[in-house]
Amino acid sequence: MKHQELERKQELKKKAQRGFTLIELLVVIAIIAILAAIAIPQFTKYRKNAERAAVESAVRNCITEIEAKFAENPNYTLNGTPTECTNIANKDPSVSSITVTGNSTNYTVSATGAKFGVTCNGGAGTSITCQ
User: Fold this and answer.
1) Domains of the chain: which residue ranges?
2) Against a cut of 0.85, is the pTM above it?
3) Nearest-CA neighbor of 97 among 62, 121, 50, 69?
4) Under DSSP, is residue 127 helix (H, G, I), strand (E, B) or coil?
5) Which of the residue ranges 7-16, 35-44, 69-78 has the most confident prediction, judged by mean pLDDT?
């Protein structure tokens, strides 16, 4: 009697321990692949946009510093890139380099990132334009 009961319990355990079929596993893998195919390009796009925004922000912060210096001394002539602009570039890993050129009435600020660059022009009595 005990032997038959034991065999019945073992049979029930075997039925309860059923695993996943190959088809079920392939369906799950296909769903994961489809989700990855959608998510990876979107992530790349968001990352590129974030880097561009960081470089533009660095340029705009540098322009703010240049305009503040112009308020003290009404001349855009600069000897190299201002320290403030260099510090802005050094704080942001998205910005590879930043350069500033100017004369008495106009200036140009250029910053480069890993994949692109941003250049802004401005000056006395003109609006700031960026490309």
Assistant:
1) 21-130
2) no
3) 62
4) strand
5) 35-44
